[in-house]
Automatic annotation (TrEMBL):
Name of this protein: Methyltransferase domain-containing protein
InterPro entries: Methyltransf_25, SAM-dependent_MTases_sf
Gene3D superfamilies: Vaccinia Virus protein VP39
GO molecular function: methyltransferase activity
Source organism of the structure: Streptomyces broussonetiae
Location of the Methyltransferase domain: 54-144
GO biological process: methylation
SUPFAM superfamilies: S-adenosyl-L-methionine-dependent methyltransferases
Amino acid sequence: MSVTSRYREAWEGFWREAPQETGAVFWDAEPALTAGRHLALFEPQLTDPALPLLDVGCGNGTQTRFLADRFPHVIGVDLSAAAVDHARRADPAGQAAYRLLDAAEKDEAQTLHAELGDANVYVRGVLHQCEPDDRQPLVDSLATLAGERGRVFLVELSEAAGAVLRGLATGPSGPPAKLAPVLRHGIAPGEVADAAVPDHLRAAGLTVLASGELPLVTTEYTEDGTRIELPSVWLVAGRRA
């Protein structure tokens, strides 16, 4: 597999310990503040909304279930078996499907594309969590999954988010309660240069069709009660007709 065993084990350990309830995880903000905002940017760029929609790095599936209310065939995929278990337990009605996928592994992406055909792809905050050597293979897989007709919506923490997170982690009171488990399991976010994100997409053969900035909302608050939001960039990419 592409990812290191340490990286996979870190995510398995995190999701095994994570509470089941929605909003207990640092990035598990309500969809109205996350995927809902992103859809307003993503949907106008879709050439075919009826294509399968893949939520890559779905975690416990909060955003996946929201997307499943709006698209006919939604699949949440994640590297972690424990995350997929969380998502399935949280979706007893089966609004969406969930499955394991190492999105940095070329063969797995090709196999899924052969099964589903072209897909629209939603990716929130995954690239910066990858090991540096896995970032281009991950984006290459996103391009494989999108094929000729699909679109990729990629939202990533901007460079400015690194300073915000370091400040939270090293504050006098220690990291906020929901950030602490992330750091404890060794999932400290890596920094991706803002200019590197479109470069990865172009290297995968995709054209950036739209881009902008939008804060990434978390479920945590500062001591004065202010919701923590992290600077982020978003891009929509696909193959030109």
